[in-house]
Amino acid sequence: MTSPQVILFAVSPIIVLFMTRLLWHRVQHNRKYKLPPQIPGLPIFGNSFQIPALQQGPWAKDLADKYGEITWVFLNSSRVVRDLMERRAAIYCSRPDFPMTQGIMSRESRIVLIPYNDRWRVLRKIMHNILSSRQHDVFMPFQDLESKNLLWDYLETPDRWWSANGRYANSVIMSVIFGRRSVLDEPNQIELFETAEEFLEEQQPGKNIVDGYPVLQKLPRSLQWWRPRGNRIYEKTRNVYLREVKDLEERMKAGTQKQCFATDFLATKEIKKMGEDQKLFVFGTLLEAGSDTSRVSIGQIIAGAATYPDWVKRARENLDAVCGSNADRLPQWEDRPKLNYISAVVKEGFRWRPNTAEIGAPTMLIKDDEYEGYRFPAGTVFTWNAWAIALSPKEYEDPERFWPERFLNGEEENALKGHWGFGPGRRVCVGWKVGEMNVWIAIARLIYCFDFEQIPGKPIDTMTIPQITKHKAQFEVKVTPRTPAHAKLIRKECADAVKVRY
Per the count of CB atoms within 10 A, which of 96, 317, 431, 487 is most buried? Predict the structure, then answer.
């Protein structure tokens, strides 16, 4: 293979020419438009090399504190997020070009990165029909079953709590999409989480220079040093998705496959118009979206329970009043109207430390626009600064504290209101309702049945809980049954759930 040094020598004249033209263009550009305060950076390259590879939330929060409500790219308050990404969503919801993560790694097929166009709308409609709130009756039996299995895993293997969270979230969506359950530490499940995390790693701002400067994709392919890595990730990701589809097709041939989304989807006219990559990435996007966010959010709330135990006592007062103070029965779906404190806990979990998208997800303006004296050109990339907003005292009282009471305002059941955990505008996570339901039933039952404590000498630093875990626990925590009666309840109510196979 060509060495990086040879590649750099070969492309240096091209880069110099490109950068000279870019500098001239920027001078002309700045004469026409008025932009918000810009963070000092390097000539030409701007801030490309200042963004940390991981834990970007605290870094972006510091910038927001220093530069105000709008900085170049970042929107640092709920006010401007609502004004631009929601009220002007029609022109603020497209996506910039990502030659590495969308082009090479996803073959232009990952819906989360597809620009706002007719193709995006078709795919969004397909996913909405599966994951919308109208489908909650489809998911509830699976969430009930899998959350009982989750309690069993916590009781029997408390040192694998984080893996149990992943199995739970994955098994719910796998049951709906492919009609099969997942088991703890299943190799296929582990590999799915690996590919999701590889995508997140590569999508981090500054990770791939070609995603920051798409013109570099015009280099001869032999000089694109990022391409081999992207191709390897693509092949691995595609194989993970393809394996599930092939297994499903084998079960269909054998007559053992139960009806599910995949069996219905494979018979639709829409799929006949799709290429193989697009078909596979529809399945894969559903699996990733349904698995990763829920497991991360459950872990966040557990960290909140261990570091701010005062709210757990109040949550249990609500749970005990409904389900019994002596482990009488597990919380059920029909209890939800009476368990408003648990709904507030879930909303606080989505707000507290927004680790799934610490600095939001970039969107692109599709035509020139003006806002509060600023003039933005088409092509400007915006993102909501999730970490800065969530931890701003201007937005929330005592923002670093896990305090569900902030959401006890009569809108506990409006899962999108009061935080940006699922994103804003037309790019709001299509599976937000399923994700919220996943977390609600799991947390109601976990808080009712288990204690979560910090381990002496190993305090949880909630500001540095990693987004990317590499199949390891996000933090260390002691998990124990709340009382012997609660352990007995789990053995009585959950043993059968572990035995169910399909």
Answer: 431
**In which domain, by residue range, is 130 found?**
54-94+108-187+277-499
- Give the CA dihedral 433, 436, 442, 445, nearest 10 degrees: -100
Distance of CA 365 to the CA centre of its chain: 22
- Out of 53-57, 162-166, 168-172, 404-408, least confident range: 53-57
Q: Is residue 89 part of a domain?
A: yes
Backbone angles phi, psi at 208, to 5 degrees: -120, 115
Domain contains 409:
yes
CB contact at 8 A, 404 and 341:
yes
Task: Please name the residue that has the structure tokens 């896990």.
Answer: 402
Q: What residues form DSSP beta bridges with 352? A: none
Q: Which of 178, 239, 183, 158 is closest to 473 using CA atoms? A: 158
- Give yes or no for a contact between 36 and 72, defined as CB atoms under 8 angstroms apart: yes
Q: Is 38 helix (H, G, I), strand (E, B) or coil?
A: coil
What does the alpha-carbon distance between residue 304 and residue 404 come to, in Å, rounded to a whole number? 10
Q: Is position 19 within any domain?
A: no
DSSP state string for 441-500: HHHHHHHHHEEEEPBTTB---GGG--S--SSS-SS--EEEESSHHHHHHHHHHHHHHHH-
pLDDT of 1? 46
Q: Which two tokens stand for residue 432?
A: 């937000």
Rounded to the nearest integer, the mean pLDDT of the chain is: 88
Q: Where are the beta strands (DSSP E) in 200-274?
A: none
pLDDT band (50, 70, 90) for residue 290 = confident
Residue at 305 is within a domain: yes
Cα 193 versus chain centre, distance: 12
Q: Is 428 helix (H, G, I), strand (E, B) or coil?
A: coil
CATH number of the domain to which 155 belongs: 1.10.630.10
Report the pLDDT value the prediction gives residue 20, as an integer from 0 to 100. 52
429 annotated as a binding-site residue: yes
- Report the C-alpha gap between 481 and 152 in whole angstroms: 11
Compute the average pLDDT of residues 416-425: 93
Q: How many domains does the chain have?
A: 1
pTM of the model: 0.87
Name the percent of the chain lying above pLDDT 90: 66
Which residue matches tokens 């600095």? 359
**Planar angle of CA 112, 115, 121, nearest 5 degrees:** 80
Q: Which of 87, 91, 107 is nearest to 99 (CA)?
A: 107
AA letter at 201: E
Strands 478-481 vs 450-453: parallel, antiparallel or unpaired: antiparallel
Torsion of CA 263, 267, 271, 273, to 10 degrees: 170
